[in-house]
Write a structure and sequence with these properties.
The structure holds two protein chains of two kinds. By secondary structure, chain A is mainly α. Chain B is about 45% helix and about 20% strand. Chain B has ten helices and seven strands. Chain B has a seven-stranded antiparallel beta sheet with strand order 1-2-3-4-7-6-5. In chain B, helix 1 crosses helix 3. Classes of the chains: A mainly alpha, B alpha+beta.
Chain lengths: ~170, ~250
């Protein structure tokens, strides 16, 4: 695919999904824009080294994730909430109708996941990455991806139950 | 596989995702759901919820202008040098071209006046300014071969006195579009360090120099610091010079 793509074509094809992934991780528009732009900047400098052009999508997501981890290490300002500790405080309610949730609430719930679950869950929902692709992007074994997804999704569902918007009182 | 195990497996199942359905464990869990009404109901709710969640993620708005910003900043990174730098580069190129042209002109310029005094002055200047010999050799044959190869006059005839002088090498100089053979000798006087020659003979086509002597008579003259002798023979103009007295030069004629 990348064989036929120039830089502009590559940006057009992937900038949207990369931004959404970045925003899922950062919940900050400016930072997500920076991460997306930085990813293409890295591509401009090193993309030619990619031998298997069919891996361009994975390469871009991997690069963005690395950039995110790097920026997080530098800034050290991302809250880290252990869901195991928070889960005890979650109200037990009936399964929510997620239709009444908006994207912001979903991302708010994602943000409350342990960091190791956030990226795989975001990739799971964004663009239907296969498990193998998620493993490549995150540079972890396939089994680890499945394990993290299982726990991350289960806890995301729990959190979404806790943030279920209350219907207006009559 | 029981119902709870199937739920754990199907938690990662995305409806209509070929990659997920290709997984053997998922396929087994889906098959179980077809036989287990409770599991089937759970799966239906799960798929509906996952569909909505997926849509929520995909509804994350992408800022307008982000694509254009990425592309324009990339283009800016590949943009030619800023205007100020362009001016510096252009100036440097212009200066280089001027010096190159000047150097070419110096070596190939046609004589302003292609007469004998100009030729004498120019060749004397070549000898006195310092020069680099193209060939260092004491072998007259090799020197002639080199000059011939360079299409410079090589079939010159040396005066009897000059035949006895020690050769040191040769060079090819320009006179308009003509080549001048510069044959370098040693007078036998002590030479300064790095100096290879102190007696020089220039040979050029007689027709290329206006006012060349019409006969074989030798003209002795002082050109700059050089005492020189000029004569013609067989269609060639000879110009011999050295620093010293005319009497000393006479020994090489």
């Amino acid at each position: 695919m990348a064989d036929s793509l120039d830089f502009n074509g590559l940006v057009t094809a992937y900038y949207g999904m990369l931004y959404q992934f970045a925003f899922s991780l950062t919940r900050d528009e400016a930072e997500a824009c920076d991460l997306t732009q930085q990813t293409f900047c890295v591509w401009a400098g090193k993309g030619h080294q990619l031998r298997d052009k069919s891996k361009v999508k994975t390469w871009l997501f991997t690069t963005l994730h690395r950039e995110f981890l790097g920026s997080r290490r530098r800034q050290n300002r991302f809250p880290h909430i252990e869901l195991d500790m928070a889960a005890a405080d979650l109200p037990v309610v009936a399964p929510p109708s997620v239709n009444r949730l908006d994207a912001a609430l979903v991302l708010q719930a994602l943000a409350q996941l342990d960091e190791i679950y956030q990226a795989p869950v975001a990739l799971f929902y964004l663009q239907d990455h296969s498990y193998n692709e998620i493993a490549e992007v995150l540079e972890v074994p396939l089994g680890t991806v499945k394990s993290r997804l299982t726990r991350g999704l289960a806890r995301l569902h729990q959190l979404l139950t806790s943030v279920q918007p209350q219907p207006p009182k009559p | 596989m029981n119902s709870e195990e199937a739920k754990n497996i199907l938690l990662l199942y995305r409806h209509h995702n070929p990659a997920d359905e290709a997984d053997a464990a998922v396929a087994e869990a889906l098959a179980l759901a077809k036989r287990d009404p409770e599991l089937a109901a759970w799966l239906e709710m799960h798929c509906a919820r996952e569909f909505v969640l997926r849509e929520k993620f995909r509804q994350i708005p992408v800022p307008e202008g982000l694509k254009e910003q990425i592309i324009s900043e990339h283009a800016a990174g590949q943009r030619p040098a800023p205007r100020g730098r362009q001016l510096v580069l252009a100036s440097a190129m212009a200066i280089t071209m001027i010096f190159s042209a000047a150097a070419y002109w110096a070596n190939h310029r046609p004589p302003v006046e292609d007469n004998l005094p100009v030729f004498q002055s120019q060749m004397a200047g070549n000898a006195l300014r310092g020069y680099a010999m193209d060939l260092l050799s004491t072998d007259g044959g090799k020197i002639r071969d080199y000059l011939k190869a360079q299409k410079a006059p090589a079939d010159y005839v040396l005066p009897a006195g000059l035949e006895k002088a020690a050769l040191s090498g040769c060079a090819v100089e320009g006179w308009g579009d003509k080549k001048v053979a510069m044959v370098c000798f040693r007078t036998g006087r002590p030479l300064a360090s790095g100096v290879e020659s102190d007696l020089w003979l220039f040979v050029v086509d007689q027709q290329s120099v206006k006012d060349a002597p019409a006969n074989a008579a030798i003209q002795i003259s002082q050109i700059n610091r050089l005492v020189t002798a000029t004569w013609v023979r067989d269609g060639k103009l000879y110009f011999l010079g050295m620093e010293g007295e005319p009497g000393e030069l006479g020994k090489f004629l």
